[in-house]
Each structure stands twice: as structure tokens, then as C-alpha cells.
Write a structure and sequence with these properties.
The protein has 74 residues and is mainly alpha-helical. The protein is built from two helices and no strands.
């Protein structure tokens, strides 16, 4: 592998790492928002039961996806 190929690979790795970081931050903000929807002292009083149930289901799904990604990395 020559130096040009190494540099290209480095650039791809840096780009992928930055995209992964963006995705993690977005997921974190989504989880925070969903938790606020569930909290009756925060946004929860302003949303319907159906919306709270959907937020709860999304949090559970997010937890399962996160847990399975941990298991795949081991």
C-alpha cells in the first residue's frame, strides 16, 4: 500500500468517525426528548397517552438496539 492509499484510508476513517459521533449525539438528544415526553412534570402533561406510549416503545426499542450493538462488538 502506497502513501496515497494510506492517506485516503485515513481520510475515510476520520470522516466515518465524525459521522458516527454525529449519529451518537443525535441519538442522545432523541432519547432525552423522549424521556421528557414521558415525564409528567416536564412535557408529559401536554401530550396524550398514545404519544407517551409511543415514546416509551421507542425508548425500549432504542435500548434493545443499543444492547445488541454491544453484544455484536464483543
Amino acid at each position: 500500500m502506497d502513501e496515497k492509499e494510506r492517506q485516503t484510508l485515513r481520510e475515510h476513517i476520520v470522516w466515518l468517525a465524525s459521522e458516527l459521533d454525529k449519529e451518537r449525539k443525535q441519538n442522545h438528544h432523541t432519547v432525552i426528548f423522549l424521556k421528557r415526553l414521558l415525564d409528567p412534570e416536564d412535557l408529559g402533561h401536554a401530550v396524550s397517552n398514545e404519544t407517551r406510549q409511543l415514546a416509551y416503545q421507542l425508548l425500549i426499542e432504542h435500548h434493545h438496539i443499543e444492547r445488541s450493538s454491544w453484544q455484536q462488538s464483543n
